Amino acid sequence: MDQPAPQPSAPASIKIQPIGIIRSCFPEKFGIPRQPGLVPDATGTIELYDWIASDSLEGLEQFSHLWVFFQFHKAVARGWKPRVRPPRLGGNKKVGVFASRSPQRPNFLGHSVVAIQGVDQARGLIHIGGIDLLDGTPVIDIKPYIPYTDSLLHAAEGYAPKPVHHFDILFTPESEQACTKYQSQHDVNLQQLIRQILQQDPRPAYHKDDRTYGMRLWDLNIRFTYTSSTITVEHIHKSPT
Amino acid sequence: MDQPAPQPSAPASIKIQPIGIIRSCFPEKFGIPRQPGLVPDATGTIELYDWIASDSLEGLEQFSHLWVFFQFHKAVARGWKPRVRPPRLGGNKKVGVFASRSPQRPNFLGHSVVAIQGVDQARGLIHIGGIDLLDGTPVIDIKPYIPYTDSLLHAAEGYAPKPVHHFDILFTPESEQACTKYQSQHDVNLQQLIRQILQQDPRPAYHKDDRTYGMRLWDLNIRFTYTSSTITVEHIHKSPT
């Protein structure tokens, strides 16, 4: 429907004040699932800043899932690109950035749906699971997931159908012991978390070699080796601080 | 999982540059559906600004639906509130703003999923349908809807199950003729659009009287009267400009 419309004037910039910060198991980008929900055991916390009154969380516990809006803050320094290479296209075909979820986009904005695991209204904390969020990510808004309006099961999936991977994941006796020890000290199923992450194949799309990789989770360094369709977790060590 | 984490420092503000602007059938708030997708015939256009290279839209036509991220620009002047009265609770119960989709939220950010009706890459235009967006809304990002990660059919819906309304909608001979005339001049099914909007019951939650209301669509003024479960569209006139 065409109609006379005033020409858009030069857009005024919009100032956004972060409402909180993400604390997550992912201190670095490598290993982060490419979308939320793929790694249920990946957990974290949204810590609200003091300028947000804690009663703004009232009633959130009625919902099971939450949209988190954030800035891909580590992407800002690299700038945005009109065309990007999504991992789902093998990393060697380009599409327009607005046909992708790439962080290298104008304004570097992200949105993820996560599971609500607990709301601590008094302390301004929300415990979340199934996350794909880097530790330290600035949060600019949160909203309840509302299925009747957000869930479109039959939307066309373009080049991004649900990914299917299958790897056999083995732990060396040493890395299995390291998991057991860590789990006795922390309330986390580390071995299951590592399995879920590696099953997503965190290797870069252009770089699917059989070799050894390192990934960080909290203060741990995890080393694992690809051999065809088998991944062996070799070592788990504390990171030097 | 508790671990020592550095205290969040005072958050730096984030500067957002709008990427485009919404042109929509809704020149004012009254009549806008409360969520996207409820009024399929409500259409509009995203006009990208010149600073966005047109090849950033390449490949978007593979998808059927789009997330639009925007600012509720008309809400900014009123400020945000920690607790709000959602229409779905009858407008008389409060919840925390983060347990709602209210525009009166910190940063005034909105997100809507809309149907992609056409991508005009050369001119930087995206034609969209099922919108709940005010004309002139600043757009800060767009992303393809990806069902495997965005569609959670079984998420808990809290206080917001799918709304069910039913009204009998009648047109006076005069208003029916006005629709026919408008439709002969514009590529739009005005009568169907009006039916879809009125079926959503645009009246404020606290104000469900049987009386006459006025609503604007493009340059038209539409007057309609509620009588119990019947709505009669009385007049359709051009707005004075």
Please bin the fraction of helical residues of chain A. 10-25%
Q: Greatest contact pair?
A: A-B, 86 and 86 residues
The run of helices and strands of chain A is: EEEEEEEEEHEHHEEE
Number of strands of chain A: 13
Fill in the CATH topology of the largest domain in chain A.
Answer: Elongation Factor Tu (Ef-tu), domain 3
CATH superfamily of the largest domain in chain A: YaeB-like
Largest sheet of chain A: 6 strands, antiparallel, barrel
* Rg of chain A: 20 Å
List keywords for this structure.
homodimer, 241 residues, mainly beta, Elongation Factor Tu (Ef-tu), domain 3, YaeB-like fold, 6-stranded antiparallel β-barrel, 3 helices, 11% helix, disordered N terminus
Any overview of this molecule?
The structure is a homodimer of 241-residue chains. With 241 residues, chain A is mostly beta strands. Chain A has two domains: 131 residues, Elongation Factor Tu (Ef-tu), domain 3, CATH 2.40.30; 71 residues, RelE-like (YaeB-like fold). In chain A, 11% of the residues lie in helices and 32% in strands. Chains A and B meet through β1, β2, β4, β6 and β7 of A and β1, β2, β4, β6 and β7 of B.
